[in-house]
Structures are given as C-alpha cells and as structure tokens.
User: Fold Orotate phosphoribosyltransferase from Brevibacillus nitrificans.
Amino acid sequence: MMTMTTAKEIAASLLEIGAVHLRPEQPFTWTSGIKSPIYCDNRITMSHPQVRRQIARTFAETIRAQFPDAQVVAGTATAGIPHAAWVAELLDLPMIYVRDKAKGHGRQNQIEGALTAGQKVVVIEDLISTGGSSLKAAQAVQAEGGEVLGVVAIFSYQFPDAEALFADAGIPCTTLSQYTALLEAASEKGVITSEQEKILGEWRKSPRTFFE
Assistant:
C-alpha cells in the first residue's frame, strides 16, 4: 500500500531541485517589500517530472481525504494552473482557472472554464505567503456562484496573519508542506547550520520587521 507523502518529503524535494533558496545572511526582497531569508519558486517543479508527479499525487490524496465532495478543481493564475490540470486529471474532475483580475477585453472573464452555480470547488495554489492573492482567487470563485470547500497549496510560510486571514474568511487552507518542515529537512540535509536554522525560525515570527 502506498503511504501518503509527508510534508518533510515534499520540502526535501523542493530543496533538491532548487525551488527553495535559503539565504539568511543576505535576505531577498519580495514584491511586498518584506526582506526574507527564503525564496520559494515552485514554478521550478514543472520542469521536474518526478517531483511534479509527487506533488500532483499528494494534492489528489489530500483532496480525496479532506474535500471528498469536490466537483471542480480551480487553479490560480499563473503558477497554480499546471498543478490544477494534473490534479484534475488524476481526480477525473473538471478544471477552471482564476485570473488575478478580469480581462479588459472580450467577455472580461476572471474565471476561465465552465463553472455552474453551486458546484463545490477546491482551489489549487503553489504558495501561501501573506495569503491575500489566494483568498482573492477563492472569493472570485464564490462571486461566480461556486462553493469553495478550501484552498490547497504546495507550500506555506506559516505566517500567523495568513492563517488568521483564511480563518476570518471561513475558508479552510491546507498545504502539502510548510516552513517548519522545510527547516527540518534543510537541517537534516546539512543545507543550513544550527545558527542559520535559529535565524530562519525567528524571522517567521516577525517577517516584516526582522531585518530592519
């Protein structure tokens, strides 16, 4: 019998293919302005068949276990789209995708694909950071009449503010792997020292001010 892939195994795969970079001594600057010792680019997974299959299978297993009534798989543009397609195929379900905003031409759709009012939808995302864009996608599905059962993402930084955002919106959010699992995997692989692990752990508690 196949066992479900663990959060640490997913994290180890992301580290192995270079989807995650850890640089506590020279932090990255995100678009939001947050200075971060970690940069996660899950788009890299598209180029690694074994890892993308591992992720797709774990997505499918998670949805079957937590959202068995799902009728539609929705991908967030753009990084969630390929994963949603692979997962929809595994689950034999219809797929849609959600733009960050409505098109400015044609039918001005924000959601592409067929969504019927009342259908139960699971939203696939690649990464949860502050949570705002993922929640916006879920709310766009709701605005079109879909019932969002939850958001499922590959990875989360586990920011308390993001967790509170989804809780306040009443939308469950789950991830295949998380920041704490990543640090554990990185430490076991010798990617980071114990001192770097400490810095990385402290940063997550106050990401907006830690490097100021």
About this structure: The first helix runs from residue 7 to 16. The chain has seven helices and ten strands. The mean pLDDT is 94.
